[in-house]
Design a protein that fits this description.
The chain has helices at residues 2-15, 45-50, 74-84, 102-119, 140-158, 168-173, 236-240; strands at 31-36, 55-64, 67-70, 87-93, 129-131, 163-167, 186-189, 211-219, 226-232, 245-251, 254-260. The strands form 2 sheets. Strands 1-2-4-5-6-7-8-9 form an 8-stranded mixed beta barrel. The chain has one domain: TIM Barrel (Alpha-Beta Barrel), CATH 3.20.20.80. By secondary structure, the protein is an alpha/beta fold. The protein contains 7 helices and 11 strands. Helices cover 27% and strands 24% of the residues.
Length: 291
Amino acid sequence: MKKILSSIILASSLILPTSTFAMQEQTTSSLKGIDVSHWDGNINWNSVRASGVKFAYIKATGSGSNGLYSDTQFTANVKCAKAAGVAVGAYHYALPSAPYSSSEAVKQADFFVSTMKASMPSFGDIMPVLDFENNGSLSPTDQVNWIRTFIKAVKVETNRNVMLYTSEDFIQTNGDLNNQLSDIPLWIAYWPAINSDTIPPNIAGWTNWTVWQYSDTDVVPGITGQTDIDYGTKSLDSLGGYLTKTTATSAANTATTTTITKTTNSTVIPVSKIISPTTKKPVLKYKKVTH
């Protein structure tokens, strides 16, 4: 009986569609994007745009053993990318510490928002990102609380949704984050070059990505050396993350205020890479070479 049952289960698994186990594939309409920081040096953004890149996530801030810091290339990258016609967004590299402190998460969020406000007053063309790939010795429960506290603080200040960047490996090694974050848009780091599957698997309740970082060794015109490359969803609007957007229109001396609500796919990212803010090489399987 056991042999028969095992054979049935195996046969069934072989005929199930890939989508049963994996997130969506990229398509020809998926947007091409990159994520960069000071590690990428001086970037020729006109060449980047000419290569087909539609959006860029640019490191704004981070936390490390010496406290909070701003990326030295953030302001220049934002200005030049926008001038070249590349949609921009900002990310914060988080380093929490044990024991869990909600005030620490809020402090990092406030610093991130103030840095964006100085160089990116509209908080970007695409939603802000929390880059979470170091657990800081927190338990999965405390990591969930830290992430939600940070995201809530940024939402309040920006009226924008916030995407989570992380990796499959990080999620798996941290108890699937208790399967409690799948309502947050996901930017997943999953590189087919070092995995047996070509598509990110469903994980921790996430069945779709909003952004997929599929390589950290791509070559993009305008950037010296290798860099991170991403797929985005089919439109910049879907990456905007606007919670509310007020548009004033005037006709015949009458002003009308319209509230528009946009929604984005809930997707998040697992990043199993722990990187020092002062080094480019990761400690774990995945790395964000732009830290």
